[in-house]
Write a structure and sequence with these properties.
Strand order of the largest sheet: 6-5-4-3-2-1-14
Radius of gyration: 19 Å
CATH topology: Metallo-beta-lactamase, Chain A
CATH superfamily: Ribonuclease Z/Hydroxyacylglutathione hydrolase-like
Order of helices and strands: HEEEHEHEHHEEEEEHEHEHEE
Strand content: 25-35%
Number of domains: 1
Structural class: alpha/beta
Number of strands: 14
Shape: globular
CATH class: Alpha Beta
Helix content: 25-40%
Bound molecules: zinc ion
Number of helices: 8
């Protein structure tokens, strides 16, 4: 009897270990938007926006409804990270309402994103305590929010002078024992990547704009300044060029390129 009990207990323990074995699930929402889940925590990056820009996927009506109603998998979200305020990454009212409906959730972003919420979201006063905003600068910052460690840094938005006013952030988030990098729309500037030196973080999964994977500058950054174990291409357009995908397949045969909403990858 006792032996049987011990046997079942050990099976239970083994099962628990194999499930909790630090699995990380990345679900594609749209454009550069993802949901990260693992180790009992959840984070959303760049996924709260609408279809203002037609060239890129936006979250479906059903997904937005699930997010706003806190239904699974969008219940108990620890953290929202927003890389920058462009409408294919962020929309003030959706983000504001998400925070209002998820009292447990915190938002980490730039002062620019915070300013957008303050000027555009009517119930801003109800969500201020949930927001942490960083001032644009050159240092990498470290936060511990709702049990998740996040390193954040500013890298200029792609596009040179025209977009120089955009405060674009990159994040490394530790979730389920893994480190996940998201660059927003970071400019492929090797000097800035050298300064930030992402290689020292031993990144497990790097989410990079897909054009990094098919351009010389981008590949230099991926291969020498990021060195992640796994690669995912994001910001893929609705009407893509076949040659870009072919180039990516050749350059990074093991990489994933997110093209279809709600695609899931597990690590
Ligand atoms: Zn942008």
């Amino acid at each position: 009897m006792n032996l049987m009990k011990a046997f079942y207990t050990s099976i239970l323990i083994l099962t628990a270990f194999s499930i909790s074995a630090q699995d990380l699930k990345v679900t594609y929402i749209a454009n550069e938007g993802v949901l990260l889940e693992g180790g009992g925590s959840k984070a959303i990056i760049d996924a709260l926006f609408d279809d203002f820009y037609k060239d890129y996927l936006s979250p479906s009506e059903a997904t937005v409804k699930q997010m706003m109603e806190s239904s699974s998998p969008f219940d108990q979200v620890n953290l929202i990270l927003t890389t920058h305020f462009h409408r294919d990454h962020f929309e003030a009212n959706l983000t504001g309402n998400f925070l209002k409906n998820h009292r447990e959730t915190r938002l980490l972003s730039s002062e620019q994103v915070k300013g957008e919420l303050e000027s555009k979201y009517v119930d801003y006063s109800q969500i201020t305590s949930q927001i942490k905003a960083h001032k644009r600068g050159v240092q990498t910052l470290e936060d511990n929010i709702n049990g998740l460690k996040v390193y954040s840094f500013f890298i200029n938005h792609a596009g040179g002078e025209r977009t120089a006013h955009i405060e674009n952030m990159g994040f490394i988030i530790e979730i389920s024992g893994k480190r996940v990098l998201h660059l927003g729309d970071a400019d492929m500037n090797p000097e800035r990547f050298k300064e930030v030196d992402l290689t020292k973080y031993n990144i497990d999964v790097a989410l990079v704009p897909y054009w990094y994977m098919s351009s010389e500058e981008g590949m230099d950054i991926i291969n020498n300044h990021i060195k992640a174990k796994h690669l995912i291409g994001i910001h893929y357009p609705k009407a893509p060029s076949a040659s870009a995908l072919e180039a990516i397949k050749e350059n990074y045969p093991k990489a994933t390129v997110f093209q279809k909403t709600l695609t899931e990858v597990q690590y």
